[in-house]
Amino acid sequence: MQKAQPTVALFVSDLHLQASLPRTTAAFLSFLQHQATRTQQLYLLGDIFEYWAGDDDLVTPYNRQIADALKAVQAQGVQLFWMAGNRDFLVGQGFAEAAGMTLLDDPTVVTLAGRRLSLAHGDAQCTDDLAYMAFRAQVRQPAYQQQFLAMPLAQRKAIIEGIRKNSQDANQNKEMAIMDVNADAIAALFAQTGSDVLIHGHTHRPALHRLEDGEIHRLRYVLPDWEYDVETPRGGWISLSADGVLHRHDAQGDEIA
Questions:
Q1: What does the entry list as the binding residues for Mn(2+) 1 (predicted)?
Q2: Which of 3, 75, 104, 174 is 20 to 30 A from 180 via CA?
Protein backbone atom coordinates (compact mmCIF):
# COMPACT_ATOMS: atom_id res chain seq x y z
CA MET A 1 0.00 0.00 0.00
CA GLN A 2 1.32 3.42 -0.94
CA LYS A 3 2.41 5.50 2.02
CA ALA A 4 0.35 8.63 2.63
CA GLN A 5 2.10 11.85 1.73
CA PRO A 6 2.76 14.38 4.51
CA THR A 7 0.64 17.52 4.50
CA VAL A 8 2.42 20.68 3.41
CA ALA A 9 -0.38 23.24 3.80
CA LEU A 10 -3.98 23.68 4.88
CA PHE A 11 -6.44 26.28 3.57
CA VAL A 12 -9.59 27.39 5.36
CA SER A 13 -11.99 30.34 5.27
CA ASP A 14 -15.43 31.62 6.25
CA LEU A 15 -15.67 30.27 9.77
CA HIS A 16 -17.50 33.42 10.92
CA LEU A 17 -16.37 32.76 14.47
CA GLN A 18 -18.38 34.36 17.25
CA ALA A 19 -19.06 33.57 20.89
CA SER A 20 -22.70 32.76 20.13
CA LEU A 21 -21.62 29.72 18.06
CA PRO A 22 -19.90 27.45 20.62
CA ARG A 23 -19.93 24.29 18.48
CA THR A 24 -18.38 26.05 15.52
CA THR A 25 -15.76 27.51 17.84
CA ALA A 26 -15.05 24.07 19.31
CA ALA A 27 -14.74 22.58 15.82
CA PHE A 28 -12.17 25.20 14.85
CA LEU A 29 -10.17 24.72 18.04
CA SER A 30 -10.19 20.97 17.39
CA PHE A 31 -9.07 21.60 13.81
CA LEU A 32 -6.15 23.67 15.07
CA GLN A 33 -5.11 21.00 17.57
CA HIS A 34 -5.53 17.91 15.42
CA GLN A 35 -5.01 19.13 11.85
CA ALA A 36 -3.08 22.40 11.81
CA THR A 37 -0.32 21.13 14.10
CA ARG A 38 0.44 18.38 11.57
CA THR A 39 1.14 20.63 8.63
CA GLN A 40 3.88 23.09 7.71
CA GLN A 41 1.71 26.07 6.80
CA LEU A 42 -1.85 27.18 7.59
CA TYR A 43 -3.62 29.72 5.38
CA LEU A 44 -6.66 31.55 6.79
CA LEU A 45 -8.35 33.11 3.77
CA GLY A 46 -10.78 35.57 5.28
CA ASP A 47 -13.98 35.83 7.32
CA ILE A 48 -12.46 33.81 10.12
CA PHE A 49 -14.40 36.11 12.44
CA GLU A 50 -18.01 37.15 11.90
CA TYR A 51 -16.67 40.69 12.19
CA TRP A 52 -13.59 42.47 13.47
CA ALA A 53 -13.93 45.96 14.91
CA GLY A 54 -10.20 46.61 15.39
CA ASP A 55 -7.20 45.09 17.08
CA ASP A 56 -8.07 46.75 20.38
CA ASP A 57 -10.93 44.24 20.54
CA LEU A 58 -8.35 41.71 21.68
CA VAL A 59 -9.49 42.73 25.16
CA THR A 60 -12.61 40.63 24.54
CA PRO A 61 -11.97 37.20 26.11
CA TYR A 62 -13.38 35.31 23.12
CA ASN A 63 -11.11 37.09 20.64
CA ARG A 64 -8.11 36.57 22.90
CA GLN A 65 -8.98 32.86 23.12
CA ILE A 66 -8.84 32.53 19.34
CA ALA A 67 -5.60 34.51 19.11
CA ASP A 68 -4.01 32.36 21.81
CA ALA A 69 -5.10 29.15 20.06
CA LEU A 70 -3.51 30.31 16.81
CA LYS A 71 -0.36 31.37 18.63
CA ALA A 72 -0.11 27.89 20.15
CA VAL A 73 -0.10 26.38 16.67
CA GLN A 74 2.61 28.78 15.54
CA ALA A 75 4.64 27.89 18.64
CA GLN A 76 4.77 24.29 17.39
CA GLY A 77 6.61 25.37 14.24
CA VAL A 78 3.66 25.91 11.88
CA GLN A 79 3.70 29.05 9.71
CA LEU A 80 0.37 30.92 9.85
CA PHE A 81 -0.89 33.28 7.15
CA TRP A 82 -3.97 35.53 7.22
CA MET A 83 -5.83 37.12 4.34
CA ALA A 84 -8.57 39.66 5.02
CA GLY A 85 -12.18 38.82 4.23
CA ASN A 86 -15.14 41.13 3.85
CA ARG A 87 -16.00 40.63 7.54
CA ASP A 88 -12.55 40.92 9.14
CA PHE A 89 -10.61 43.27 6.86
CA LEU A 90 -9.75 45.47 9.86
CA VAL A 91 -7.42 42.83 11.27
CA GLY A 92 -4.04 44.53 11.62
CA GLN A 93 -0.51 43.98 12.78
CA GLY A 94 -1.55 43.95 16.43
CA PHE A 95 -3.72 40.87 16.00
CA ALA A 96 -1.19 39.29 13.63
CA GLU A 97 1.54 39.53 16.28
CA ALA A 98 -0.75 38.27 19.03
CA ALA A 99 -1.72 35.25 16.93
CA GLY A 100 1.72 34.60 15.43
CA MET A 101 0.59 35.21 11.85
CA THR A 102 1.81 36.90 8.68
CA LEU A 103 -0.69 39.13 6.86
CA LEU A 104 -1.16 38.50 3.13
CA ASP A 105 -2.37 40.71 0.31
CA ASP A 106 -5.44 39.70 -1.69
CA PRO A 107 -4.62 38.07 -4.06
CA THR A 108 -1.39 36.30 -3.17
CA VAL A 109 0.59 33.74 -5.17
CA VAL A 110 2.52 31.01 -3.38
CA THR A 111 4.60 28.11 -4.62
CA LEU A 112 4.19 25.00 -2.47
CA ALA A 113 5.04 21.36 -3.18
CA GLY A 114 6.06 22.38 -6.68
CA ARG A 115 2.71 24.03 -7.46
CA ARG A 116 1.99 27.69 -8.13
CA LEU A 117 -1.24 28.58 -6.32
CA SER A 118 -3.28 31.77 -6.37
CA LEU A 119 -5.06 32.58 -3.11
CA ALA A 120 -7.92 35.05 -2.67
CA HIS A 121 -10.84 35.64 -0.37
CA GLY A 122 -13.19 35.88 -3.34
CA ASP A 123 -15.30 38.96 -2.66
CA ALA A 124 -13.29 41.15 -5.04
CA GLN A 125 -14.39 38.88 -7.90
CA CYS A 126 -18.14 39.30 -7.16
CA THR A 127 -18.24 42.19 -9.59
CA ASP A 128 -21.89 41.72 -10.56
CA ASP A 129 -22.90 42.91 -7.09
CA LEU A 130 -22.42 46.60 -7.83
CA ALA A 131 -23.71 47.81 -4.47
CA TYR A 132 -21.26 45.60 -2.58
CA MET A 133 -18.34 46.55 -4.83
CA ALA A 134 -19.01 50.25 -4.13
CA PHE A 135 -19.16 49.55 -0.40
CA ARG A 136 -15.96 47.49 -0.57
CA ALA A 137 -14.10 50.26 -2.37
CA GLN A 138 -15.13 52.73 0.31
CA VAL A 139 -14.27 50.73 3.42
CA ARG A 140 -10.92 49.51 2.06
CA GLN A 141 -9.61 53.08 1.77
CA PRO A 142 -6.90 53.76 4.39
CA ALA A 143 -8.40 57.17 5.24
CA TYR A 144 -11.81 55.62 5.89
CA GLN A 145 -10.31 52.92 8.10
CA GLN A 146 -8.23 55.41 10.04
CA GLN A 147 -11.29 57.53 10.73
CA PHE A 148 -13.37 54.48 11.70
CA LEU A 149 -10.73 53.02 14.02
CA ALA A 150 -10.45 56.37 15.81
CA MET A 151 -13.99 55.91 17.13
CA PRO A 152 -14.61 54.25 20.51
CA LEU A 153 -14.77 50.44 20.28
CA ALA A 154 -18.40 50.28 21.44
CA GLN A 155 -19.43 52.76 18.75
CA ARG A 156 -17.61 50.78 16.07
CA LYS A 157 -19.37 47.60 17.11
CA ALA A 158 -22.75 49.30 16.98
CA ILE A 159 -22.04 50.59 13.48
CA ILE A 160 -20.92 47.15 12.32
CA GLU A 161 -24.09 45.56 13.71
CA GLY A 162 -26.14 48.03 11.70
CA ILE A 163 -24.17 47.31 8.54
CA ARG A 164 -24.57 43.56 9.04
CA LYS A 165 -28.34 43.86 9.41
CA ASN A 166 -28.63 46.08 6.34
CA SER A 167 -26.49 43.63 4.37
CA GLN A 168 -28.65 40.66 5.41
CA ASP A 169 -31.81 42.51 4.41
CA ALA A 170 -30.33 43.56 1.06
CA ASN A 171 -29.07 40.07 0.24
CA GLN A 172 -32.57 38.64 0.59
CA ASN A 173 -33.59 40.67 -2.44
CA LYS A 174 -30.55 39.84 -4.58
CA GLU A 175 -30.38 37.04 -7.11
CA MET A 176 -27.98 34.31 -5.97
CA ALA A 177 -25.96 34.62 -9.18
CA ILE A 178 -25.17 38.25 -8.41
CA MET A 179 -23.48 37.25 -5.15
CA ASP A 180 -21.26 34.67 -6.85
CA VAL A 181 -17.95 35.36 -8.57
CA ASN A 182 -17.97 36.77 -12.09
CA ALA A 183 -16.40 34.55 -14.77
CA ASP A 184 -14.54 37.45 -16.38
CA ALA A 185 -13.20 38.56 -12.99
CA ILE A 186 -11.91 35.04 -12.36
CA ALA A 187 -10.28 34.94 -15.80
CA ALA A 188 -8.65 38.30 -15.08
CA LEU A 189 -7.33 36.99 -11.76
CA PHE A 190 -5.79 33.95 -13.44
CA ALA A 191 -4.19 36.23 -16.03
CA GLN A 192 -2.89 38.57 -13.31
CA THR A 193 -1.33 35.82 -11.22
CA GLY A 194 -0.10 33.52 -13.98
CA SER A 195 -1.35 30.52 -12.03
CA ASP A 196 -3.55 27.66 -13.17
CA VAL A 197 -4.92 26.92 -9.66
CA LEU A 198 -7.02 29.28 -7.55
CA ILE A 199 -8.25 28.72 -3.99
CA HIS A 200 -10.83 31.10 -2.53
CA GLY A 201 -13.81 31.29 -0.23
CA HIS A 202 -16.50 33.95 0.38
CA THR A 203 -19.34 32.52 -1.73
CA HIS A 204 -20.21 29.62 0.64
CA ARG A 205 -20.49 27.38 -2.44
CA PRO A 206 -17.80 24.73 -1.95
CA ALA A 207 -16.81 23.08 -5.21
CA LEU A 208 -14.02 22.23 -7.60
CA HIS A 209 -14.49 24.00 -10.93
CA ARG A 210 -12.52 22.77 -13.95
CA LEU A 211 -12.07 25.58 -16.45
CA GLU A 212 -11.15 24.53 -19.97
CA ASP A 213 -10.20 26.98 -22.73
CA GLY A 214 -8.49 25.25 -25.60
CA GLU A 215 -5.09 24.09 -24.36
CA ILE A 216 -5.53 25.97 -21.07
CA HIS A 217 -6.67 23.91 -18.10
CA ARG A 218 -7.35 25.65 -14.80
CA LEU A 219 -8.76 24.62 -11.44
CA ARG A 220 -10.81 26.82 -9.11
CA TYR A 221 -11.26 25.45 -5.60
CA VAL A 222 -13.97 27.09 -3.49
CA LEU A 223 -13.70 26.65 0.28
CA PRO A 224 -16.80 25.93 2.39
CA ASP A 225 -18.17 28.09 5.15
CA TRP A 226 -18.40 26.63 8.66
CA GLU A 227 -21.56 26.19 10.73
CA TYR A 228 -21.57 23.47 13.37
CA ASP A 229 -24.33 24.97 15.54
CA VAL A 230 -27.04 23.41 13.34
CA GLU A 231 -28.56 19.95 12.98
CA THR A 232 -26.44 19.14 9.91
CA PRO A 233 -22.99 20.68 10.42
CA ARG A 234 -21.09 22.02 7.46
CA GLY A 235 -17.48 23.03 7.09
CA GLY A 236 -14.20 21.69 5.82
CA TRP A 237 -10.87 22.66 4.38
CA ILE A 238 -8.38 21.96 1.60
CA SER A 239 -5.04 20.28 2.15
CA LEU A 240 -1.96 20.13 -0.04
CA SER A 241 0.22 17.05 0.26
CA ALA A 242 3.94 16.85 -0.44
CA ASP A 243 3.34 15.26 -3.86
CA GLY A 244 1.52 18.42 -4.99
CA VAL A 245 -2.00 16.97 -4.81
CA LEU A 246 -4.83 19.10 -3.40
CA HIS A 247 -7.49 17.35 -1.31
CA ARG A 248 -10.93 18.63 -0.30
CA HIS A 249 -12.21 17.71 3.17
CA ASP A 250 -15.74 17.91 4.57
CA ALA A 251 -16.97 18.96 8.02
CA GLN A 252 -15.90 15.62 9.52
CA GLY A 253 -12.47 15.81 7.91
CA ASP A 254 -13.20 13.07 5.39
CA GLU A 255 -11.81 13.55 1.91
CA ILE A 256 -14.28 14.52 -0.81
CA ALA A 257 -13.85 12.54 -4.00
A1: 14, 16, 47, 204
A2: 104
Is 55 a known ligand-binding residue?
no
pLDDT band at 29 (very low <50, low <70, confident <90, very high): very high
Return the pLDDT at 2: 56
Specify the CATH number for the domain of residue 68: 3.60.21.10
14 in a known ligand binding site:
yes
The pTM assigned to this predicted structure is 0.95
- Is 64 one of the annotated binding-site residues? no
In a domain, 109, yes or no: yes
pLDDT (mean) for 212-226 = 91
Q: Is 167 annotated as a binding residue?
A: yes
204 marked among binding-site residues: yes
In 3-state terms, the chain is what percent helix, strand and coil (to 5)?
A: 40, 25, 40
> Binding site annotation covers 121?
yes
Task: Specify if 2 maps to a domain.
Answer: no
Phi-psi region of 149 (alpha: psi -120 to 50; beta: other; left: phi over 0): alpha
Considering its fold, how many domains does the chain have in total? 1
pLDDT at residue number 97: 98
Per-residue pLDDT tens digits for 38-90: 999 999 999 999 999 999 999 999 999 999 999 999 999 999 999 999 999 99
81 within domain boundaries: yes
Residue 1 lies in a domain: no
The kind and range of the H/E element at 115 are: strand 115-119
CA dihedral 252, 52, 47, 131 (to 10 degrees): 140
Q: Is 16 annotated as a binding residue?
A: yes
Q: Between the CA of residue 197 and those of 101, 108, 220, what are the distances in Å?
A: 24, 12, 6
